[in-house]
Design brief:
The termini are far apart. This protein has one domain: Ribokinase (UDP-N-acetylmuramoyl-L-alanine:D-glutamate ligase), CATH 3.40.1190. It contains eight helices and 17 strands. It is an alpha/beta fold and 310 residues long.
Length: 310
Amino acid sequence: MAIYPTRDLLSISSHVVHGKVGNDAIQFPLNIRHWNVDCIHTTNLSNHPGYKKFKGTKSSFQLIQDLYKGLTKIELRYDAAIVGYVASKQVLEVIYTEILAKLPKETIVVMDPIMGDNGKLYVEEALVPLYKHILRDQTCEGLINLVTPNQFEMEILTDVKIVDLDSLKQAIVSFFELYRVQKVVITSVSFDDSDTVLCIGAGSDGEVFTIQGSRIDAVFSGSGDLFLGILTDRFVKSHGDLKESLTHTMNVVHKVLENTCQLSANLQPKRYVGDKLYIPDLRLVESKFFLRDDSSDGILDNLTTSTTFL
């Protein structure tokens, strides 16, 4: 039986009892990829709010602080850390000052600055300037290795409205002028209603690459969290090769979403977001074959890539 090296990761994100979002969409896939994943939950909900009915609470900043202090008492060290959904400004402040700032410099940190989508904020507005402060803080340069905003969040961070390739390039230039982060991935970029989806990777060295894949005509909860987990795994294992990491991640996530869509075809009652079918639960267990390290081998033909320099 093959023995694989394991790594240790701290994931700070939301938690639901039922469903696969937040930490629940990150932990299982990374376990399959030989990570020991410790989770700090920023929420404790019965299910995703997309169901329209749920119970539970947001975690307090005192709880987040105490949990991490407990981890430091037993002298744990992490190869990587993920910061996903954060529910309040006070919690983000604790994550920044009491966790990220105290991690060893060799820990790879990937942050998804979750603020909103489709032109709307769904977190408290006080989080926006705090995210900007964290990313530009010169005293913590190199603290965060990779940031993964979506198109709307990139617009918030740079104050550049992204409507075409020129404004996209302008936003990327502004990002690296403003923030002390070496690499960024902009997810779910779209300029029209085409059946393709773009992900943009960029580095502070001026390299920009675009990866284009086919769009699945449905709305999923947890797909962004799954994307974040797989990207972090590959980013660490490839020693920071962002293009390879992003290509692999898009393939894996696409396969999981396809499988989830097929397995949910007869789901009742059907739910919709606008005119698109809404699928609230990813089928991660049923998709575990696609979650393996080698799962994207030989299935790269659904993506096209291009590289430029600013």
